[in-house]
Amino acid sequence: MSVIPFDQRDGVIWFDGKLVPWKDAKIHVLTHGLHYGSCVFEGERAYDGVIYKGTEHSQRFHKSAEIMDFTIPWSVAELDAAKELCLKENGLKDAYIRPVAWRGSEMMAVSGINNTIHTAIAVWEWPSMFDMAQKLKGVRLDVATYRRPDPACAPVHAKAAGLYMICSLSKHKAERAGYADAMMLDWEGHVAECTGANIFFIKDGVIHTPLADRFLNGLTRQSVIDLCRQRGFEVVERRIRPEELEGFSECFITGSAAEVTLVSEIGPYSFLTGNMGKVIMEDYSDAVRPKSKAA
Predict the structure, then answer these.
(1) pTM, entire model
(2) Which of 53, 66, 142, 295 has the most other CB atoms within 10 Å of its CB?
């Protein structure tokens, strides 16, 4: 199946406060965000025309920029309205939403402190990172060579473009080896996350997930933890050593793109695609969709 390149699609993109034709939403090659990674972004989904946790995403967008030492020139409310406008003008109800903010081109050097901050929002159809058959069968993960950095060495709590360099490299290597994605360890060798999703394990009815103090605490991760606890499932956030994977019965990953997806294999370790994981997948699917107003 051929895929239309992202710079050649139809529709409109919100760019610095106004809608522009999709193909005209361009930046200069000498842009600080491209050369030095001074760029933050979000990944969100709309279901039946409603953006799931849209305001929380806009708040995190602002926080990421703050961590990266710049200020997004649009309020949370203005960003929320712009996302709604993009959905409406592109005629989409079920869509992926990508806000992005970056330093512009006034200065091309390590310091870009006075560069203009630009902001754009694009929306497009993307049903899920994995189709339902893959989610239920369980995806296969490699173990990445690269590790998530020490918080003393990188702004790990920002959703910043530069932090995804090793994610792309790890995912490329995994895909070439026949895997869907890769699980990454932290710099001390504990289980951290996947290249674009958080990870959970199940053992004896208890859910275990790495502490999110060394990588991005995903909003989907937070939602799933809340849903599990509402159902009465025990959730333990802790350091997990890779050798512990042998003792877990189930595994799943979470993220705006992946939603909730079961895992059947991580390197030498295999997992059941059991009922508990499927219940969590169903609970999340129900939670993200607007409730009917009918009595």
Answers:
(1) 0.94
(2) 142
